[in-house]
Amino acid sequence: MKINTLTHSEELLMNILWKLNSAYMKEVMEAYPEPKPHQNTVSTFMKILVEKEFLITEKEGRIFKYSVAIPYDDYRKFVLRNFAENYFNNSVPELVKTLLDEQLLTNNELNIIAGITRSEAKDESPISDFINEITSNKKEKKKGKKKDKKKKK
After folding, report:
1. pTM of the model
2. Contacts of 99 (CB under 8 A, 6+ apart)
3. In the chain, what are the domain boundaries?
């Protein structure tokens, strides 16, 4: 199944439909945030979404019931792939680096995602001793250095 990109308005409508999963026009209009667009506008967008194969219609008497054809997770993955391709040259490390640089992701969150616990991160890091030395209390460092000097004498 080929997924197409959605305009902002189409995506807004699809977000409503993904929450409802299937709905009649009346239910969609009720779920729309203020300011609500005209019903004809929403109807036109729904027709476009049927053409783009995001929605399936079922005729029930004189009205249509609209059902989601492309699940939200599938569209989210599609958008993420396009985003990585268009803005990060398909480089996931570059994407993650940008997320870290912009503080949208912390190192701790990254470790959680990678499945690394705090103790594993400390033990496996080749520079953990250096980091501990730099970040440890300065008074303890001085005491340790004095003890080392006394031992040498």
Report:
1. 0.67
2. 105
3. 8-70, 73-135
